[in-house]
Design goal:
heterotetramer, A: alpha/beta, Rossmann fold, 2 domains, two-stranded antiparallel ribbon, 9 strands, 45% helix, 9% strand, globular, B: alpha/beta, seven-stranded mixed sheet, five-stranded mixed sheet, 33% helix, binds thiamine diphosphate, binds magnesium ion
């Protein structure tokens, strides 16, 4: 049970909800070890969570390597924020709707989006977003490049679900930078006014490219932005999978039960450059990054499952191998996609084709011939 | 809930343009329960122009939704609703307040189908009253349809009579892609015409040839059609004017039905385009450019645009000096008739 | 002294700050009469305030009458919200910058904008905004029609003042409806982040045309929106001039001393239709309006100054006469403005005239002749 | 603070376009302390393209301000700053994120002078990199300059070389009215040219005739000037091409310097317009329309537009099929040369 669900209490929470300390030990509260949620004793679930987190990390490493060799384009690593996105993916039910942002590789993977389609997307191919997720509702949203605009879509989808009297919830993620944009603030306000079944998760990784958290807002917490819209809001240690998973489960369950929206501010840190096109050493000190490494989610969680006896060295080696195998296969699958025909740019613009554009399709074909003959 | 409503179905109505909008909305909501409305003051108040009058009462607050005052979210929410299987019809109270919606319309509504290679679609309609001549405050008179016409993936549709408002709005709602539906508010209550509430949509992407003629092709849309009709009927009916003018209502201002325009200009050899919007990069520019590229050898005289000036619409005390009159159109037609290469 | 200036306390204020009860008696706190701010004993100031409030009301009545007879266009009355706008005007110093919204006739009048220029504006003549206020800073902003966009201008001006190391403050007003728009929320956030010398005042008159306050936001108070931007925020009885004036003075003084921004939610009620083009009986019950009449600011304040011995029936009659005289003069002055020439629409578009537009000026002249000859 | 900087004044620099932008910004900030910069990542990071590199270090955080991630506010704040006597230069990181600024640019920046009959003015510059061809993600390749060109009160300026970037940016900053300054990011680091840091602005509202010729007028702007130059120099230098082409860089894409264009077309009788933006209602439409109205009797052949398609720019794997190449321009010129009425 989430203890502090009144909006009033939630925004006055002075420390983010946390179960695992930085090294992976369960935190001490008062004189004793803090009581864990029940699911934290579920070996299968915990192992699954760890696998998704480390697969996400392996995927990130591979993607960065592919970018360096020109096989895909600019890529935003999620290094150090895997717990947030994986918890999102795992807390969602099949029919819920995921409205992620571009750093949510983990969530996409958990939702059943294939790695080759993710590579396709980052390789500059629209078909990367054409793939129907294995277990998704069928309308998980594609990556949304204009920051924070997905928040409006999330409230729209949530409103549709409510009108259609469906029982699903919507989960929308965004960054700390995105929390300054009017789209998000207006969407929060609408979610509060219309009491929509939507959960917002801010991945507060402390940076928006080179802009630090303190320039984004004078507010002590970003969670407060939810309270100002009449939405229960909570700060959570985003590097603690157990805390994230607990809160997201509750928040989504509330939403599914039509008890209204929630906002979760997940405190984390962007260990990588913003994207492969960025050089973070220009604007932030290495010490800050080093310090953040000591709190990263994956090692912490690995320690926990080791301690619980859910995992060991051997399992780790096997799984890392497995990840690499999956990745090699996915890269091969990605590379086997031939580029679309030039005329594909017209194929999905309109369902009902305006015949006045026939000329342009012909011109496109001629252009191809002109530029590719000889 | 108006329980008598069903009896009126398929009846003829003698109504004005804004009532035709209302009738089409009502019809669409009756026929398809995925149609929902959202916007400012569209509920109990029925819209500041009464376009949604009575609809919340009839269909309930879950299908006719007053929003907070937030245009960005009105558009963005409509995108989300459309993706999720509804057919949202969003109202922007005046076109002058549409700019906050553009990011969502340009980046998302226009692209969702293409971005996902058809996996997700965005069948929304965004309605807004537009144009000047009603003595309104600043920002209540804009005609910036060309902004939308420049963005691939959007359809821009403008009715110019009650019947076309009814039929084109139904077409916009049926259309599986986003439509910007701009309503000439100067015509909202200008005239009553007969409209049959038969649920039949008119075709999109098609001009309407309102008058046939052989000497000059006059192209316009929206409120200016009123003055054009009067001028054309004047010329065509006066035997000794010696002039026969073809009047084309563009109706879908993007994508443009150039086939109809080409056929007309090949016949008449002369073209005048009338629009209230600013001249530079307006829809008139696209039509004239198309003529310059493809039809000049059929032309007996230069093309002429009669448009708003490239200036801010004056506040209402002086807006008359901006608005296009019948005399302006008449004079333009005479100039083109008198000129040749 | 404002007692509750910590952001934390301010947003938890459960009742708006108030000195005068609905009938104009000083409110009782505990067992005794609440202690008034010192200025409330200043006869001259209090009489001045009352005069501005009743002049504003007389102006409103005249403007509505002028609209009904076609002498000006659509007009938004400020009936019942005079205390807010007059307090704004009076709390501002000469060099401060006023960034009002369209219902701020009172503030404009106090700032020295002439009535004939206000009529000009509402009569559809740009010169209504061309007037340099008598005592203003020279860049009081004109009426801003796109809702809430003035909030961004206010932070821009505040930022400029800070950069220029000037000591003025900026005061920006807006409605409850406007508080939902991204522009305002983003501007608040910037004001908090950059610690700008700006005070925002929400005239929460419970309605945005036909949309009631509870649809605007699920938040219990609109003041919370400030807290979510790290800005001290307070709810005030907007029909109580004394409370408004106290808070605005403090807030502006803080801003001038570069202690950062503040948000004031002024609780009031729109007694009139939204504008002369609106019919509020379509969407709100008469009982609500009747009830609100019992709390209106002007009668309440009149009662107070009567009680204090600052004002009497005779003064009232004189002043009402005076208002009418001023108004008759202003209407005459307004009506003596001939319309601008048609070509005026080009005169202020660009300082450096693009010669390629000469043709359009000529066409404009020809058009005039064509349409106005015979 | 680079104390050596003063010694470099008036020196010649061999720099690329983005460095010229940086040089102009630095020069303007040195010469006028009311010039301030605001935007995302423009401070310590120096902008994602390094256009503002070193400026925060040199001029301090009160003149080079990182903003929260909020484009609407970047524009609106710039409006307020400009009204209050500063000369704000706002950066929008990519033109694809400019849409949230439009309400402020269209409703306020473009109108403040007119609205107040000259009492208040709005001398802001809004800079944004634009255009495709750099293999960037979605929304990082847009060319929607025509949207701004349609709005009276805004100037839209686009440089196509380091020297013009320097001189036109200074002109934009000096200009007492708002200027949208769009930087062709494909040219940011394409070539280094000599730029003299003399603080001299180039004129606005003026085309630059980059090559003189007698047979055809080629009009373009921004990044496409690169391919145009190469094609024109090819034609003009090959004796047996028999062709002499005049190349005009539009530079200020609104208001358009039609005087220069008219003179050229009266001389050559043929015109090709090249732009990367979508065709419909693009700037090319305005130029072609102007020709259709005023210059057809001087034309020996139809006008031709070589433009982007009316489609979303494909993601980068296929963006080549959208981008205009030298071969496309060559072919277009040959077609127009071969045709006549
Ligand atoms: C509207 C908009 N403005 C600017 C950008 C460019 N941009 C891409 S990511 C980014 C920073 C986002 O920071 P944050 O929201 O904190 O997410 P993070 O990348 O840190 O996960 C910016 C400015 C954009 N994509 N969209
Ligand atoms: C951006 C924008 N959207 C819509 C409108 C139309 N409109 C004018 S006033 C108004 C209601 C404003 O309500 P509120 O902010 O509460 O101020 P009030 O009129 O109640 O004082 C609306 C929707 C507008 N002017 N600007
Ligand atoms: Mg971040
Ligand atoms: Mg209100």
């Amino acid at each position: 049970m989430l203890h502090n669900l009144s909006p009033h209490l939630l925004t006055n929470v002075s420390t983010p909800l946390q179960y695992l300390s930085a090294n992976g030990d369960v935190v001490i509260e008062g004189n004793s070890v803090k009581e864990l949620p029940e699911f934290a004793r579920d070996k299968e679930l915990m192992v699954q969570a760890y696998r998704w987190m480390s697969l996400t990390r392996a995927f990130d490493q591979k993607a960065v390597a592919l970018q360096r060799t020109g096989i895909i384009g600019t890529y935003p690593s999620s290094l150090g924020q895997e717990a947030i996105s994986v918890a999102c993916g795992m807390a969602l039910e099949r029919d819920d709707v995921f409205v992620p942002y571009y750093r949510d590789h983990g969530g996409y993977l958990v939702r059943g989006h294939s790695m080759e389609h993710l590579f396709l997307y980052w390789g500059g191919d629209e078909r990367g977003s054409a793939y129907k997720p294995n277990e998704g509702s069928g309308f998980d949203m594609p990556i949304c490049v204009p920051i924070a605009t997905q928040a409006s879509h999330a409230v729209g989808i949530a409103s549709a679900l409510k009108i259609q009297q469906k029982k699903q919830a919507v989960l929308c993620t965004l960054g700390d930078g995105a929390s300054s944009k009017g789209d998000f603030l207006e969407a929060l306000n609408l979610a509060g006014s219309w009491q929509l079944p939507v959960v917002f998760v801010i991945n507060n990784n402390q940076w928006a490219i080179s802009v630090p958290r303190h320039i984004q807002s004078g507010a002590p917490t970003l969670a407060q932005k939810g309270s100002a819209a009449g939405i229960p809001s909570i700060q959570v240690d985003g590097n603690d999978f157990i805390a994230m998973y607990e809160v997201l489960n509750e928040a989504l369950e509330r939403a599914r039960k039509r008890k209204g929206p929630m906002l979760v501010e997940a405190i984390s840190y962007r260990l990588s450059d913003h994207t492969t096109a960025d050089d973070a050493s220009r604007y932030r000190p290495q010490e800050e990054v080093d310090e953040a490494w000591s709190k990263e989610p994956s090692k912490r969680f690995q320690h926990y499952i080791h301690q619980q006896g859910f995992w060991d060295e051997k399992a780790e080696v096997c799984w890392q191998d497995d990840c690499q195998t999956q990745l090699v296969k996915a890269v091969a699958a990605y590379q086997s996609f031939e580029a679309e025909q030039p005329e594909a740019m017209f194929d999905h613009l309109y369902e009902n084709w305006p015949t006045c554009m026939d000329d342009q399709v012909i011109a496109c074909g001629e252009k191809y011939l002109r530029n590719h003959s000889g | 809930m108006n329980t008598n409503y069903d009896h009126q179905l398929e009846e003829k109505h003698n109504i004005c343009l804004v009532e035709a909008v209302n009738l089409a909305l009502r019809r669409a909501m009756l026929d398809d329960e995925s149609v929902v409305l959202l916007g400012e003051d569209i509920g109990v108040n029925g819209g500041v122009f009464r376009a949604t009058d009575g609809l919340q009462e009839q269909f309930g607050i879950s299908r006719v939704m007053d929003t907070p005052l937030a245009e960005t979210t009105i558009a963005g929410t409509a995108v989300g609703m459309a993706v999720a299987g509804l057919k949202p019809i969003a109202e922007i109270q005046f076109m002058g307040f549409i700019y906050a919606t553009l990011e969502h319309l340009f980046c998302h509504a226009a692209r969702m189908r293409n971005r996902t290679r058809g996996r997700l679609t965005c069948p929304l309609v965004l309605r807004a009253p537009f144009g000047g001549g009603i003595h309104a405050p600043e920002h209540h008179s804009e005609s910036t349809e060309a902004l939308f016409a420049h963005i691939p993936g959007l359809r821009v549709v403008i009715p110019s009579s009650p019947a076309r408002a009814y039929g084109l709005l139904l077409a916009a709602i049926n259309n599986p892609d986003p439509v910007i539906f701009l309503e000439p508010k100067r015509l909202y209550r200008a005239e009553k015409h007969e409209v049959v509430d038969d649920g039949k949509a008119l075709p999109l992407d098609t001009c309407f040839t309102l008058r046939e003629g052989t000497d000059l092709t006059l192209i316009s849309w929206g409120a200016c059609i009123k003055e054009c009709l009067s001028v054309v009927d004047g010329f065509n009916s006066i035997a000794d004017s010696g002039l026969s003018i073809e009047l084309i209502d563009l109706a879908t201002v993007n994508p443009i039905d150039f086939a109809t325009i080409e056929a007309s200009i090949k016949k008449t050899g002369r073209c005048v385009i009338v629009h209230e919007a600013a001249k530079t990069c307006g829809i008139g520019a696209e039509i004239a450019a198309h003529i310059a590229e493809h039809l000049m050898s059929y032309c007996k005289a230069p093309v002429k645009r009669i448009t708003g000036f490239d200036t801010v619409m004056p506040y209402f005390r002086n807006e008359q000096h901006y608005m296009i009159t019948e005399l302006d159109i008449e004079a333009g037609i005479k100039t083109v008739m008198a000129s040749s290469f």
